[in-house]
Every structure is written in C-alpha cells, then in structure tokens.
C-alpha cells in the first residue's frame, strides 16, 4: 500500500473544525476571536513508551491520550491534531486497530486529525495537539503561590504497577493486573477537569514522569516549595483499594514517582476548596488534596505525623 | 545529561512571537486578527530522509527546512515550530551541531521554537511548523484552472543527483558533487516566494517527492490535467548548467521525478505572467514556466515537438 492510499484508507475523514483538513501542504486552523491555541507535541517510541505486545488499538488511544493530557493541564479544549507515523511496514491489521483506537478517542473529545506525515522507519509516533483557551486564562506551571493547596486528580501509580508486572518484578492477582493494565494502556486525559479548573486553579501540570518529578516543574517555575503528605499514597493507588497488599515504601514509590499516570497535579487557594470539588464533580473525576505550597524552596514528603521521609524518589528522566 | 538539561542547554531560548514558549505543558499561539494558522508536520528517519554521515548542523537545517517548505507552499509566513527528537544517546557534539543548524535557519525566517519532546530511541526527528496567512488567502492544491500556466521555482534534480552519487550509481566531478550536495543537505524553503505569490498563483505545492508526483496532487485536488514540457529539464538541473554531461532520459528522471527538491510547483493564469516574474524577482528566486493546466484529466510529459514521451516516471512513495 502506498503512503497516500494508507492515509486515505485509515486516517482521512471529513473535518469540521478546521477550514482545511488532511491533504494539502498545511492544515489551516483559526482559533475563535479572543482565544489562544495551546500547542503540545509528544513522541512515542517502542520499548520506551509502549511494549511491542500492546494492542494497536490501545497504542492509538494512548498516543493521542498522552498528547491531549497537555491541553488538559493547560485548561484548553482540544481542537485538532497532526499525526506523524514511522512504520516498519504498512500492516493493514495494525493500521486498522491503531486508527480505530486513535480516532475513537479523538471523537470522544471532538478533536480532529488535520494533517501529518507517514514514512517507513522504526516504529515511532509523534502527535502535535491543539487546544483552544481564552487568551490569558491558560493554567500555567508558574502560578502556584505559598499557602495554596496541592491537589491531584484520579488515582496514581497503577500504570507503573502494571509495567512492573509486565517486567516480572511483581506478581499480581489477575483482576488487579487487568485493571492496572487498563490504566497503563488506556489513560484518560483530564481535559474536562482542566477546563473546569480555569479560574479556580493557580497552576497545573499533567503527571507523566511521576508526581514528584512533575511537581518540581511547578515549584521551579513558580519559585515556591511544597509539602506532600505521603499518607495519602495508599488511597491514591487503585490496586490498594481493590485489596492488594504492598509494602508501604513500594506504594509511595508507585504513587509519588511511578509515572505514566496522565492525571493532573494542580494548586488552588484554600478559599477555592469547594470550587475544586465542584470542578471534579462536574468533570466526573475524583480530586484529592495531598499537600500545600510553601514559601520556602524545596519539596518535602511528610509522613502522617508531619515528619520528613528519608525515602529517595527519582522521577523518570528519559536521558538519565 | 538529563532530558530537561538537554532542552535547557541546546534548545531553550527566549521567545517573542508566542505568548508562552518552551517549558510549560503547552506553548500558546495566537494568530493576529483575521489570520489563520497554517500547520504542517514532517518526520525524518535515518537512512530514509538523511544519511547517517550527514553533518548534524545540516541535519538540523534540513529538518526545519522541509517543514518550512510547506507553509511556503501555502503562502504563509513562518511563526513558530515544535521539535520532537528521539536520540540513541545525548551526544553533546551532535546536539550542538544539530541545534546550531536548526536555530540558524529558524532565525533566518523569524520562526521560533516553542515546544516539543525529547526521548531516547532510534534517531527520529519530527517538526510541526506554524505559519500565519490571511484568512481565506492560503495557496491550496485545489485552485488550478484549465488554461493556467504551470511554473516551478529554482532548480530541480540536483539533490537526487547527489544522492545517486552517494549511492555510487553515478560519478561526479568534485565541484558539481559539492554543489549538488548543498542542494541535498541544505535546501532553502521558498517561503518568501510563497508569500509573494499570494493573490497571484491559483495553486501551489512544494516538490518533495518529485515534480510529477507532487503535481499529480494538484491535478487530483483541482480536477484538471496538465502538460509538462520536458525540454525544460536540462535548464532546470543546475549540474547541467555547470557543464555536466548526462543522458537526456536521466536528466528528465532527475528533474521530473528526482525528489527532495523543496522547490514550489504552482499555477497562475497566463494574465499573471509579469506578476509571477515580479514575485520571483522580489523573493530572489528564479521561476520557470514549464507547462500548462489542461481541462482534460491526466498528466502528459511532452518533448520539444509537443509529442508525448513514453518514459515512465515514478515519484517517491514512502510505502511503495
């Protein structure tokens, strides 16, 4: 199958939100008056971001999900995306599954595929996603203030738990493995929550590299510190709620530094607690208060008694 | 070197055109009132789009050049781009060269790096570029009309000539090889010409896969045919002007189907010939009239006597 046939068969669909979709030199995008475009780009490489055994449907889903997670963290409404795909071969079954998973998530968010590139090469997927946000209202990493509450959405650590099970480092009951695997393979980008938090939260980031590592970006950009209550960890790991018994330190490692969660970490003034809860309810996403922003620099992880934990957490860093 | 250090050291610079640059979940873009964003994405894979021996500086240059070529063909002014980079290792010398070549071309076009992604993996580069064009004025593939002239910019076929020399299929005098190699490794995107052609040309495309193959996209989208005068071929190959003697059929193959040229093919009414020449002069780019758009479908390559040539030309197709 040729490159252009491949695009036509699996990826070319009518577009509504872009004045011009797939098939010209460029797609054309026009944010509504007073809106800014929030742009993000994420690349997925086999063996690093997904296992070679993954169902292509879930790979398609996840490729877009990890990208929509960023406009979500900015409080932007997804609008469109481009897809660049390097493939070892034009495998029809793979392409059918990949495009099905990709476009199902795109449809769920009203986000249109407007362009991209396909080529032969080692399997590599790059998506650039575009969201729309009222000018000056995007949730940034730089807005956290001393005294703000620190919150996270959803549950954390289950994706990493599934990865450790795939790696054979941990053995899980089937039901817990299945649920964790869904978290690893089918993350749900928190775009509804992000939009609901515009005007409520002071800063936000999506948790892709582990909570503590990503939180550090907020602290650096905002010029503040934070205290995280590690006693929250068990209630944030879905596997624990499902009855899995794990060492406390392992639970903390998974929740605080596991990565691949695609939940939001965000800050909001204490006066906005009810508004944060309402935003979570509106988005159908659980929100949990896990700490506070401090005026002094540094990131402290505290036990239930408020004492600093000595445990070392190192977030993923793709070049470490 | 960690991912974030790598970005900070080689790629993070102050941005002026974007309300928010590198370092948040999303970059923010805001086209001026009445403007549309022209968006394009191209992926480059080692062995397919560049040789492993290429100077990283020229790889950086070319990675952006092939992307800016698309806003050029749309008549858009480059504004910003995102860069996704999968690298086998964080090699300082490679990164210094790559970022130098990339950012030098970006600066030459006033186009800012606003975001992206870095990860470890087989060398793969994806850029998404953003240009600005007055709403409704972009040069599309669909605007060619029967009776229009068919034009190309610059010279064609020299990049492919260099590739064939690298492959050992042809032997070239050093000076001609050096010049052809510059065409292969350092293409100059025709963005000034594209902008000058807005309101003059009826359709345009950038020639990346070979003139005939790319022209076919204009014909398909516009519902027309075309006749190309193959007698133009020798004057379009810079190596011929420099004295290289080649078989006529080879020259035609290089010029009409060589690929990797990043010149523009475009159409304009015969009444606009002076305006096309003026646009070329304004942009400092040669323009050559090489044929005409026909009402009937099909793409005919004619010899100097107006007879159809039997020679078979097959443009690149990355999955053929």
From TrEMBL, chains A, B:
What SUPFAM superfamilies is this protein classified in? PurM C-terminal domain-like, PurM N-terminal domain-like
Biochemical pathway? Cofactor biosynthesis; thiamine diphosphate biosynthesis; thiamine diphosphate from thiamine phosphate: step 1/1
Please state what class of enzyme this protein is. Answer: transferase
Cited InterPro entries: PurM-like_C_dom, PurM-like_C_sf, PurM-like_N, PurM-like_N_sf, ThiL-like
Record-listed Mg(2+) 3 binding positions: 25, 70, 206
List ligand-binding residues for Mg(2+) 5. Answer: 209
Please list the residue ranges annotated as the PurM-like C-terminal domain: 146-301
UniProt-annotated binding residues for substrate: 49, 260, 316
User: Which superkingdom, per the lineage?
Assistant: Bacteria
Q: Which UniProt keywords apply?
A: ATP-binding, Kinase, Magnesium, Metal-binding, Nucleotide-binding, Thiamine biosynthesis, Transferase
One GO MF term on file is: thiamine-phosphate kinase activity
- EC nos: 2.7.4.16
The positions annotated for binding Mg(2+) 2 are 42, 70
Identify the residues that bind Mg(2+) 1.
41-42, 117
Residues annotated as binding Mg(2+) 4 are 25, 40, 70
Q: For ATP, which residues are the binding ones?
A: 116-117, 141, 208
Q: Does the record's keyword annotation contain Transferase?
A: yes
Catalysed reactions, as listed in the record: thiamine phosphate + ATP = thiamine diphosphate + ADP
Tell me the ranges covered by the PurM-like N-terminal domain, including all copies. Answer: 23-133
What is the role of this chain?
Catalyzes the ATP-dependent phosphorylation of thiamine-monophosphate (TMP) to form thiamine-pyrophosphate (TPP), the active form of vitamin B1.
Check the record and name the NCBIfam families matching this protein: thiL
What else is noted?
A: Reaction mechanism of ThiL seems to utilize a direct, inline transfer of the gamma-phosphate of ATP to TMP rather than a phosphorylated enzyme intermediate.
Q: According to its UniProt record, which protein family does this protein belong to?
A: Belongs to the thiamine-monophosphate kinase family.
Protein name in the entry: Thiamine-monophosphate kinase
Say which species the protein is native to: Ramlibacter terrae
Q: Lineage, please?
A: Bacteria, Pseudomonadati, Pseudomonadota, Betaproteobacteria, Burkholderiales
- Gene, per the UniProt record: thiL
């Amino acid at each position: 199958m040729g490159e252009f046939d491949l695009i036509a068969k699996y990826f070319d669909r009518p577009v509504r939100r872009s004045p011009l979709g797939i098939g010209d030199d460029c797609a054309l995008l026009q944010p509504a008056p007073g809106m800014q475009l929030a742009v993000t780009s994420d690349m997925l490489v086999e063996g690093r971001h997904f296992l070679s055994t993954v169902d292509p449907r879930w790979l398609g889903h996840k490729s877009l999900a990890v990208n929509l997670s960023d406009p979500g963290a900015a409080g932007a409404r997804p609008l469109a995306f481009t897809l660049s795909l390097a493939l070892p071969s034009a495998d029809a079954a793979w392409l059918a599954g990949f495009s099905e998973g990709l476009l199902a998530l795109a449809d769920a968010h009203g986000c249109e595929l407007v362009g991209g590139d396909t080529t032969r090469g080692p399997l590599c997927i790059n998506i650039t996603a575009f969201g729309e946000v009222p000018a000056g209202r995007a949730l940034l990493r730089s807005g956290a203030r001393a005294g703000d509450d620190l919150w996270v959405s959803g549950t954390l650590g289950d994706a990493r738990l599934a990865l450790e099970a795939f790696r054979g480092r941990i053995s899980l009951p089937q039901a817990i493995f299945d649920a964790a695997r869904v978290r690893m393979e089918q993350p749900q980008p928190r775009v509804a929550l992000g939009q609901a938090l515009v005007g409520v939260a002071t800063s936000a980031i999506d948790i892709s590299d582990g909570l503590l590592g990503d939180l550090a970006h907020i602290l650096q950009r905002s010029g503040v510190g934070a205290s995280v209550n590690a006693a929250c960890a068990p209630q944030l790991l879905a596997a624990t709620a499902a009855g899995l018994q794990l060492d406390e330190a392992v639970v903390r490692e998974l929740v605080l530094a596991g990565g691949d969660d695609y939940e939001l970490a965000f800050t909001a003034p204490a006066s906005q607690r009810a508004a944060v809860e309402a935003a979570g309810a509106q988005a159908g996403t659980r929100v949990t208060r896990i700490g506070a922003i401090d005026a002094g620099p540094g990131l402290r992880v505290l036990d239930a008694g408020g004492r600093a934990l000595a445990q070392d957490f190192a977030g993923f860093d793709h070049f470490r």
